[in-house]
Amino acid sequence: MRKIILDVDTGNDDAVAIMMAGLHPDLTLLGCTTVAGNLPVANTTENTLRVLHHIGRSDVPVFRGLGAPFAPHPFPTPAEFVSSATPVHQEELELAPSPVAVDPTPAVEWLVETLRAATERITLVPVGPLTNIAAAITIAPEIVDAVDEIVIMGGSASHGNETSQAEFNIFQDPVAAHVVMNAGFDRLTLVTLDATRHARVSAAQCRELEALGTAGAMATAQILDYYIRGNGNSSPDGAAVHDALCVAYLLDPAVIEVARLHVAIDTVGFHSYGRTLIDLTGISGQRPNSSVALKADSARFFELLRGTLAA
Ligand code: BDR
Ligand code: CA
């Protein structure tokens, strides 16, 4: 049974990732840490508690994380710099509030303590800005040795979804991403937008999920319907459920195709601030530091989603 920690900025696709991780019998979800990203951290925390309560997993503790980037944004962010593709997110998910409160331990403290005390290695799955993870590593660099694999949703080898160059999670905190990429994790898997753009769910597939009738499937259909209607990432084929692809990969690695590549983060550029510089040809001469997912199997993804939510 794989032990995992999800670091989330819930968020619609984060919610689906939490449900998959909380419901699949092969995964032990030790806790969720929250971070600012899609919404301020108070909202991402509230949403995370609601999602877990909805699927009957209020036993999974939620720890509130950092509410601002690890390093301050060096540029003012004029409207023209941040593209109009920025998703419009609802504030609180339309799910009942949880009777369980957030754990009083700050997320970064809990991450450090849990990884220091771990008797078996843990998988980290950050699917928001990398602020909490970078802070934890900075406080306690040795915790990377307690991590079996870190599976990050972020970056792009092609175009971005926040600016023309940068993907949302990395753009929000590129310095944190730089810290994480260079921390020395044994296995670092970067699930880029190029892969997650294939992890789409259509309106018709939402109806299939609804027909399953389980709490998780019904909520996922409702959340994705909203996402399909209102999100800049949607297309006639549906909406990309980026974060859920990371959990699907834990259940079935063949759902993505990975290549060993070197990835650097642009922390200084203006137009390319937050871009992941993915060395596709090896021209930099730098040793690969990541397994980078650039493709995903759409049908396999949906089967994993449906199978997990049916239970
Ligand atoms: C990422 O950005 C967020 O809006 C989503 O939750 C996902 O983690 C996709 O770029
Ligand atoms: Ca997210």
UniProtKB/TrEMBL annotation:
<dbReference type="GO" id="GO:0005829">
    <property type="term" value="C:cytosol"/>
</dbReference>
<keyword id="KW-0378">Hydrolase</keyword>
<dbReference type="InterPro" id="IPR015910">
    <property type="entry name" value="I/U_nuclsd_hydro_CS"/>
</dbReference>
<feature type="domain" description="Inosine/uridine-preferring nucleoside hydrolase">
    <location>
        <begin position="4"/>
        <end position="303"/>
    </location>
</feature>
<dbReference type="InterPro" id="IPR036452">
    <property type="entry name" value="Ribo_hydro-like"/>
</dbReference>
<dbReference type="InterPro" id="IPR001910">
    <property type="entry name" value="Inosine/uridine_hydrolase_dom"/>
</dbReference>
<dbReference type="InterPro" id="IPR023186">
    <property type="entry name" value="IUNH"/>
</dbReference>
<keyword id="KW-0326">Glycosidase</keyword>
<dbReference type="GO" id="GO:0008477">
    <property type="term" value="F:purine nucleosidase activity"/>
</dbReference>
<dbReference type="Pfam" id="PF01156">
    <property type="entry name" value="IU_nuc_hydro"/>
</dbReference>
<protein>
    <submittedName>
        <fullName>Purine nucleosidase/ribosylpyrimidine nucleosidase</fullName>
    </submittedName>
</protein>
<dbReference type="GO" id="GO:0045437">
    <property type="term" value="F:uridine nucleosidase activity"/>
</dbReference>
<dbReference type="GO" id="GO:0006152">
    <property type="term" value="P:purine nucleoside catabolic process"/>
</dbReference>
